[in-house]
């Protein structure tokens, strides 16, 4: 097998390299592209639906949102890579796929290094949220412009303010909402999410590595069930259901 080739019998290898930055290969999984296409198709106005949005408007909205998501997830994963390197570990690859990103890191085998590596990703989202929220507050003159409701992450707390946003402010709100959602999602105490890894690292210091993994795994399974139950009562909750199934099985 030539250098750089990967066995395609493993679906995780169905990806292609798009570049290399800071000594880290960035790869995109084919499913990431397919998911984007499916989401775009789902957003298209249906005949007889009464929706007046044109194809161009829907395309720009969907493409812009997915572009922001791509950027946020990518920087989030670079956060993990830099976190691993900061504690003396290594990082050489990032894979972007439908449920987010996977950074290939190898931190030193101790609780502190694992915790900091895991926490470095959400730290990126915290920075994004704080900066964007600050900009929105000063830009609009209203703290209610920041969409803090996780069930409506793309609408300001003051819903009437939403209709008076400029195009640039609209995309700033969208950027905050995506960063905010990814932060909350990644902090769920479900392995292999960052929250689950951080929980396991904290337990590691007190209970040892093996016991901490057992507790974190059990906690993650319970958390996945809770997320799944919540998803049943929320409209258009297919993504939450996917997260619940993924978290439970892993």
Features:
alpha+beta; four-stranded mixed sheet; about 10% strand; globular
In short:
The protein has helices at 30-43, 55-86, 111-140, 159-162, 167-186, 194-207, 209-231, 238-249; strands at 15-21, 24-29, 90-97, 100-106. It has 250 residues and is of the alpha+beta class. Strands 1-2-3-4 form a 4-stranded mixed beta sheet.
Compute the CA-based radius of gyration. Answer: 20 Å
Outline the low-pLDDT stretches: none
SS elements, strand count: 4
Q: Strand fraction band? A: 5-15%
Would you tell me the structural class of the helices and strands? Answer: alpha+beta
Task: Explain this structure.
This protein is of the alpha+beta class and 250 residues long. It folds into two domains: 11-187, no CATH class; 188-250. 60% of the residues lie in helices and 11% in strands. It contains eight helices and four strands. The chain has helices at 30-43, 55-86, 111-140, 159-162, 167-186, 194-207, 209-231, 238-249, and strands spanning 15-21, 24-29, 90-97, 100-106. The protein has a four-stranded mixed β-sheet. A hairpin with a 2-residue loop joins β3 and β4 (100-106). α3 packs across α6.
């Amino acid at each position: 097998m030539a250098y750089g080739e990967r066995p395609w019998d493993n679906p995780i290898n169905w990806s292609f390299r798009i570049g290399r930055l800071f000594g880290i290969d960035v790869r995109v999984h084919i499913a990431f592209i397919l998911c984007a296409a499916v989401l775009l198709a789902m957003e298209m106005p249906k005949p007889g639906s009464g929706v007046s949005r044109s194809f161009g408007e829907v395309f720009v909205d969907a493409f812009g949102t997915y572009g922001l998501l791509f950027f946020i997830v990518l920087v989030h994963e670079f956060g993990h890579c830099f976190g691993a390197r900061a504690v003396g570990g290594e990082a050489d690859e990032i894979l972007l796929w439908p449920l987010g990103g996977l950074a290939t890191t190898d931190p030193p085998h101790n609780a502190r290094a694992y915790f900091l590596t895991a926490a470095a990703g959400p730290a990126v989202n915290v920075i994004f949220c704080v900066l964007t929220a600050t900009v929105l507050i000063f830009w609009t003159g209203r703290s209610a412009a920041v969409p803090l409701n996780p069930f409506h992450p793309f609408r300001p707390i003051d819903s009437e303010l939403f209709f008076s946003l400029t195009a640039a402010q609209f995309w700033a709100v969208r950027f905050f909402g995506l960063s905010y959602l990814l932060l909350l999602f990644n902090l769920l105490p479900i392995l292999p999410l960052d929250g689950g890894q951080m929980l396991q690292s904290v337990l590691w210091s007190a209970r040892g590595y093996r016991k901490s993994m057992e507790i974190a795994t059990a906690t993650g399974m319970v958390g996945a069930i809770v997320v799944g139950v919540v998803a049943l009562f929320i409209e258009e909750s297919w993504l939450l259901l996917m997260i619940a199934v993924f978290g439970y099985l892993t």
